[in-house]
Amino acid sequence: MLIAGLLALSDPPHDARVELGSANLGFGWLRVDEQSGTIAELGRGPAPASPDLEGTHGAPLLISPAFVDTHLHLPQFDSVGADGLGLLSWLREAVFPAEARWADPDFAGQMTTRVARKLLAHGTTAVAAYATVHHEGTRNAIRALSDAGLRGHVGQVLMDQEAPAELVRPAAQLVREASTLRPVGRIEPAVTPRFAVSCSRELLAGAGELAQASRALVQTHLSETREECRRVRTLHGAVTYTEVYRRAGLLGSRTLLGHGIWLNQKERAMLAEMGSTIAHCPTANLFLESGSMNLGENRRAGVRTCLGSDIAGGSDVSMPRVARAMIETAKSRRLLASAAFRARVTVPSAAQAWWQITTGNACTLALPGNGELQAGAIADLVIIDPARGPEGDREWSHRDDPIGAVLYGWDPRWITHTFAAGKPVYSA
Ligand code: GUN
Ligand code: FE
Fold first, then answer.
1. Cis amide bond preceding 312, omega within 30
2. pTM for this one?
3. What is the whole-number distance in angstroms between the Cα of residue 52 and the centre of ligand 2?
4. Nearest-angstrom CA–CA distance, 17 and 13
5. Residues lining ligand 1, judged by CB closer than 6 Å?
6. Residues 368-379 pLDDT 10s
7. Is there a single domain that holds both residue 47 and residue 71?
8. Do 116 and 148 share a structural domain?
9. Is the same domain home to 35 and 58?
């Protein structure tokens, strides 16, 4: 299939540890080969033949690498909007009852199929996702995401304390079960201790050993709220939250830590040294009133960051909305900063935010071939027509900052197609 329009190409940062790359637009075309699942050819300028897809309102399509969501919870998609609770009571009252429903593996599979459809309709083809503590439910979730064509990492949630009896298991059983999970299609199992509150020292250590033996991605939560940090100190003793994970062998270059808000400089230095990544979840941090992550400080300390929706802590599955929330969080930090510190606040541009939800996030999840428009890359694509519909913007490509116009004016109904490994998996 030949597609023509404005290509969202990627300018890599000079130093990916401390800088964001940037999306830049260029007129061009690409040919998707469904057989190999790749971008077979890509060129700049006019298409060599009549395209199968192009803008139809006198404005070009925007052709972008599909979105990547580096932190979300599959069983929480029906729990969006449960407002008014801080993290720990929200988990108790809204989240754990929803996750308990995954005791039925068929329900887990069916719910994940529904979630996958929603992700694809919003242009997301790759994820790092949490399932639940249920082993069979997790297996069904992995299969359902794979069947839908998604790529990425999914983990059985490890919890052996501080949760309802029906959602905790003995540490040894959990580690054994998680160790038997295998990749299915484009989905790989991830080692997923929920957070230090709901894991004993034994479970964290078992998870660390499994991560080192399997080389799987590790995902957990770190320093999201102050109440949680106090609970971790009570449960794990007088070391920093980050040190709890380091001692368990859970910090490495394939470790993703959700939130990372309430960190001190020693913890940031430790994360930078271990090469671990903070999954920034700005919509969730606002919804749960957890705090506001200091992007500039983390990056200056050399800590890698990526971006996630954290459904249902975050309410928005749409990654351009999460990207915008990242910018807004940074702007609100700048607004509140004292004059002496204002210049130190990093506010990403729209082009950098777009890069983050495509190329940057794909890089964090170690998805070779994803996140870039180039010949030979995996054809995970989202095709966007901002001129669509009565309120469409037919002049979008002529705006001073076309990526800004798309990001700030974002309407998920602009997505006309999502491709996963060259297959059309959503069209509207
Ligand atoms: N910390 C531990 N579990 C969770 C969860 O499900 N969502 C969020 N936002 N934070 C958590
Ligand atoms: Fe989360």
1. yes
2. 0.98
3. 40
4. 9
5. 73, 87, 91, 95, 194-195, 221, 224, 284, 310, 313
6. 999 999 999 999
7. no
8. yes
9. yes
